[in-house]
Write a structure and sequence with these properties.
Order of helices and strands: HHHHHHHH
Structural class: mainly alpha
Largest sheet: none
Distance between the termini: 60 Å
Number of helices: 8
Helix content: over 70%
Number of strands: 0
Shape: globular
Strand content: under 5%
Radius of gyration: 18 Å
Number of domains: 1
């Protein structure tokens, strides 16, 4: 195999898909910063979702495109919440667990949104309306949970990202497949890192 030819093909492929590649890289930066509870994650997220609005529009993934628009708004909300929201002890927003009551509410909302989005998307020319609806619903819930610093947000992202890997592979969005595979792994790491922080705080109290 001629390495020069392979490199030439890789460079040509990146040149043709550079927008998607940049979006994927920024998404990875966002997740890494989020695992470290860095407020800068929201800045990376803002640029990432702005790029993916156009990527998903071209791929006819309208649910995911609408989701990116929601992420755009949530980037501002998440930044504000992480910067200014206080706990009862008047300190920075802390990592918490959702209560059983909130979990039941979120589960019900996720099911309703999945069915609703899936139905609405059948009126578009997307060929994966129901799967697109499910990932859209999970993305909405996961983003809100991240902004509130509920540790279970990582579990939601793990499920959502695994589904997205399958959808984007089917749609031929290979840089995005790689991106979602990586952020699925990072979501697992993020969960355990936040869990470690929680344990450290409990032991110091």
């Amino acid at each position: 195999m001629n390495i020069g030819i392979v490199l030439e093909e890789v460079i040509r492929w990146i040149a043709l898909n550079y927008v998607e590649v940049i979006g994927s890289l920024l998404g990875i930066v966002y997740v890494i910063l989020a695992t470290k509870q860095s407020i800068w994650c929201w800045y990376a997220g803002f640029i990432n979702v702005s790029i993916y609005i156009f990527v998903f529009l071209e791929a006819r993934l309208y649910g995911d495109m609408a989701l990116q628009m929601f992420y755009l708004i949530m980037s501002f909300y998440g930044w504000y919440n992480w910067k200014y929201a206080k706990t009862n002890k008047n300190s920075k927003l802390a990592i918490t667990n959702i209560s059983r009551k909130v979990f039941i509410y979120l589960l019900a909302i996720t099911i309703i949104l999945s069915i609703g989005f899936g139905y609405i998307l059948t009126f578009t020319n997307t060929d994966v309306p129901h799967w697109d609806g499910v990932t859209t619903a999970l993305g909405l819930i996961g983003t809100w949970m991240t902004a509130k610093k509920y540790i279970e947000n990582w579990l939601v992202w793990i499920v959502a990202n695994i589904l997205c890997v399958g959808i984007y592979y089917y749609k031929g969005l290979y840089p995005t497949v790689g991106f979602y595979t990586i952020i699925t792994i990072l979501a697992v790491i993020g969960y355990y890192q936040w869990k470690k922080v929680q344990l450290k705080i409990k032991l110091s109290e």
